[in-house]
Amino acid sequence: MNKKLMFGLAAAGSASLFWACGSGDIVEINDDDKMVLVLLNEDDAAAENRAGIIREALILYCQDTIKDAAGNPVLDGNGKVQLGPVSEECMNSASPGNMGSDDASSSSSATVTSPYKVSSSSAFSPFGGGSQQQNPTSSGNVPVLSSPSHQNPASSPSGQTTATSSSAAPVDPNAWGTCAANTTTNSIKKGASVQWKLALDNTKVDAAIMTSGSYSWTFQDGSPDKATVQKSLTSPSITYATSGEKTASVVVSYQGKTNTIQCTPLDVTGAEVTGCSCIPSESQIDIATQPRVTWSVTKCSSTETTFSYEWSDGLVGTNSATGDLNTKGTFAPTVKVKNADNGMMTVQCGAVTAIDSKNPDYVIKVAGQQGEIELPAKKVTVVVDVTLNGGGNPKVICNADGPIGGTVNNVAFQAGASYYATLQLPAGTIKKGAQLVFELTSPAKCGVEN
Prior knowledge:
- By secondary structure, this protein is mainly β.
- The protein is 7% helix and 38% strand.
- Strand 6 (117-118) and strand 7 (123-125) form a beta hairpin.
């Protein structure tokens, strides 16, 4: 069917856009048709009017077609499609270089920057890192981990990048735009299909490239592996039968000039990894006496049973990794377990609480209510610096203005405790020099007594 792009201008100054077809039908334009704009057969005399033409085309692009209850376009008395009000938001954001694209394709996939920063001393803070700094999820203290001095970890084997580690294409200042797979995660399953999309930089290319440019795509391991399209910034659907990181590029041709744009790589994953768990050797350590902790990964399942491991926070290991904490706080690394088919599972390891008996948050120096100290509603360490006389097993006591909840050394207060509560810990726990870890749900005054 032959199409001819036409304008309809009403007396009120509004514009209508439709296809007049050879068969005599009036056909509503679609999103791809809108990308064509009105820059057809432009000569030198028309060039000076280009800005006005583009503005008019954008007005049309930002108007929705008025439809009846059945969803059919409403025609005016002259048989032209009626368009609704112009969206100012659309006018402000639309440009010939990005019309028809969406967020997933108009920019390269964001590079994920780790919030963890390795220092020159080989110790690192899992919550440091300048502009990437994040607040700790623990008591507010920042746990710092360093490799044991006796450890000589081997370098990670090559090819152990994770399924989400695809990096953006190198920035080419001469490129006419960017391109990426049209996915929100930049990842698909092996055997699936995806389209690639190009976002042109309208500060570097003429708007007319939308109507007369040619786009020649090349896809690593894709089927098909090549495709050339006209007047569209989107490739055909490409299917991937193998896993791994896949690259793509597109050569843009316009008015005798060409420009090659490298796309952000796509990650194609294969057999899934499931069931993994990561357990620490200790749930609590005292960095003043024994700072070392080991995390171990177990129970991983996959049809591809050869695994590699990528630990966070500077830890290095295979299915286990060891490090030394050197400050108070709560520390819980992650590990990415990957198989030979590019399947990957990110595993959150169990948390380890690090206390420092040489530098406690609080000290109880007097037994009973007269020795109670005010504790906040967060995880803190308390040292018992009092000798408890008398028989029986000493206990924790707390007073508050409302319900008392939380734990001491991971033993929970009885549900419904209010204003005054006691907590019995295992025999021998509460004694002079003992380290207690309080994690209250609301502030309270707490102490110890027989």
